[in-house]
Every structure is written in C-alpha cells, then in structure tokens.
Amino acid sequence: MYAVRRSLLAASFVVLASGVVVLPARGDDAPAPVAKESIAPAASAASAEKISIATPDGKIMACREQSPQPFLVRGNWFPKTNDPEKVKAARKLLDDSIKYRTEKYGYFEGFGSPKLNPHPPRHYAKSTTFMGMTVQVHERIITPLKCVEAALKSGPAGNEYKPRAMGGIRFKNTYRGVEISNHVYGIAIDIEPDRNTCCGCVAPWPDHPLCKANKKTIWERMAMPKSWVDTFERFGFYWLGHDVLQDTMHFEFLGDPDKVLEDVATAP
What we know:
Blueprint: E1 14-15, E2 21-22, E3 52-54, E4 60-63, H1 84-105, E5 125-130, E6 133-138, H2 142-153, H3 157-160, E7 166-167, E8 188-191, H4 209-212, H5 226-234, E9 237-239, E10 250-253, E11 261-263
Antiparallel strand pairs: 1-2, 3-4, 4-11, 5-6, 7-8, 8-10, 9-10
C-alpha cells in the first residue's frame, strides 16, 4: 500500500495508515442535488500537441483524447424536473452507469450484479504516482492519469501548480440511497481537499472562507488552475466543479477505458 504525503495537510481530513484519504462529507451524505449541466463537457477544442507515453512493455503509444460519457455524469441522473418520463429516463441512465461500472471496474455489494464482474473494485486497486504524489486507484485509470501527467509536463501547466497530496480509491460508499461514489470504483481522485473547495457540499465545507466570498468565481475558490482542469478533461476525466456540488478537488474518469491509447502510427 502507498503512503500519501502528509506534510501541510489540513486538519479537516484524515490520512489513514493504508494511504486512503478520508474526507468529511462533501455532499455525498446529502440528498442528491440537481446538476447545473445536463451534458458532459466536450474535450478541449484547443488541445495541444499529441501526447505519447511509454507502456510498461516499452512501446510508445499515443494518448487518445476523449470526452466523458454522458450517461456516467451524475448530473444527468437527477434532472431538474418533475416530468415522470424524464425522471424515469434519468434513473435508467443511473442504472446503466452502475452496470457499466460494475462490468469495467468491479462489483460493489448492493449495486449491480456480481454476474457482470465477480471481483470487487479493490481487487484491481494499484498504487501509482502522479505529479510527485502517490495514490491508489483502479488499475484501468493509471494510463489515463499518465496521459494527463505527460500533458501537464509538456507545457507550462505543469509548473503552474504543485499539489502536495491527493486521495483515490475508498472501500466504503459515502453516498446514500441509489447512488454510489466513483471513489469506490477507484476511478475518482481528490487533489488537495484543503485548498480546493466544495462549496455546494454539506457542512463544514460551505464554511470555508473562500466559499463565503459569494462574489468570487469558482476559479477563485480553488488553488488548482484552470489549465489543470482543461488538461484532465482532454483525456476522459470529468471535473465535479461542473456539478452543483462545485467539488473543485474531484476528477473522475468517465471516458472509455478501452480507448485510452492508440498506435502512434495510426494516430491522427
């Protein structure tokens, strides 16, 4: 198991010996909110040069840019309407997302069916590094993280921000009701929760001084620069800052894990 960097971490969260960062409720324990956006943001149209990485076997592969898959975006599961047909359609998206995540990332008891995947997400958990930090995630999102890292390091964004800690997989669902956290599947990460706010979440998060400054934009309520968000979004990650939770620390891989890389020779 890895050890998360502990120096200068805020007292508002705890680093366990296992290396998993456990946070206070970010809204996970509150009734499911309505998202401000009903569709996933498209990959940046102003993407930089093609990013390539070396695979474990030494082959050079190109990182495929992709957008989050809309049916996996939590905002689409809770439409701002009482129209029964739209509510029913949204619930189907949630059900489909659970089936998909179970098949791709593992079965978590109480959600989906073990027939789709007999192993729990923790079975696939592995430690990796990202921008000098160590984190434990599902093995299938290590490559997308490496693509993000390579893209950050290839331009000025990599020097614009130096985070000190991050958290990944959790082994307990922090949502209530029909929803399950992507941290459980190991496909979500939180970067510096003490410096990147979640102003739409339950207490004590809204009490953060940056959240109380109502006139500030979301970018002024976080330490992470927009360049980092843009880079993550190039490679299938969804930023929960788009959600009504305004969870600026949180990224989750909602792209297709089977379409992360492509041969350099065939890449456009």
